[in-house]
Amino acid sequence: MGSNTPESQIFLMFGNGWIANLMKDILLEQGKTIIMSKARIESREQVLSELTKHKPTRVINCASTRGTPNVDWCEDHKVETVRSNILGVLNVVDTCFQLGIHVTQIGSACIYTLSEEEIKHQPPFKETDEPFYQGSWYSRSRLLSELSIRHYSNLLLLRIRLPIAADLHKNNHIGRLLKYEKIVDLTGSGTVLPNLLPGALVLSEHAVTGIYNFVTPGQISNVELMELAKKYIRPDLTWQTFVLDDMLSTLRAPRSNCIMDTTKLQKKLREYGYEVKERREALEEVFQIMAEKGL
User: Taking the domains of the chain in order of start, what are their residue ranges?
Assistant: First the structure.
């Protein structure tokens, strides 16, 4: 799986959502060959057909179900969630394994949780800590998916949490926060995509395998994001904060909150000359780009 040089690689992407298209744009800017598959990953036949037809050297799976407008959707669509997040993921990873193809799976870090008090005293979760959180159907599907695939030798599994980018997409954590008059004053891990996604492709190109906490170093707070939005793009922005219990009372299912250790990710990317930016630098860069875009 590691014999192909980066220049000769052919990427095949499953999924056509927000993160998939951000990765596609990076690959195109780098002059790489990228094929966007329209296959339904729930269908093993469709997945296998795409792999045999295009003969990719690298596969990236961004296809998943999280629901609209939020993960509460999964509570009423349990079968659809299982078919996409468990069966579909297994189809992709297993068919790639059979064909000797390296696969990067975009997973979730929402398989851990701590209370607000515990977060203050517990160390960040490492990749070696056994995942356990299944308080929502979405998290349960992600947990079962990771447990099912983590021993595959062709797999790079990247755990994303609260993705952040320089746009106002509905799945962007910034875009979601800006819609609310009241926000929860929470601090946890987040994935600043503009800095981290190129790193994901570096790992894929070099056929790195294993599980990585794919989050930005440091702790990101909702209040900090609103303050940066006010500074850079919404000078008239105002908001109120409320406690987590008040938010949970309005939701169908509880949410996870956690801080993830990024030591393994930073060390591995540094081996390839790629530096992961710390929280504040990465966030400032995102809001500066948004300001330049006039968002």
Answer: 6-163+192-216+257-276
Classify 272 as helix, strand or coil: coil
The token pair at 243 is 């406690």
Q: Which CATH number fits domain 6-163+192-216+257-276: 3.30.1490.190, 3.90.1170.20, 1.20.272.10, 3.40.50.720?
A: 3.40.50.720
CA atoms within 13 A on the CB side of 241: 13
Query: Rounded to whole angstroms, what are the CA distances from 197 to 59, 147, 158, 167?
Result: 15, 24, 10, 15
Q: Report the residue count for the chain.
A: 295
The stretch 243-258 carries a mean pLDDT of 66
Average pLDDT of span 258-262: 96
Query: What does the pLDDT read at residue 53?
Result: 97
Determine the pLDDT at residue 247: 58
Q: 3-class SS at 191?
A: strand
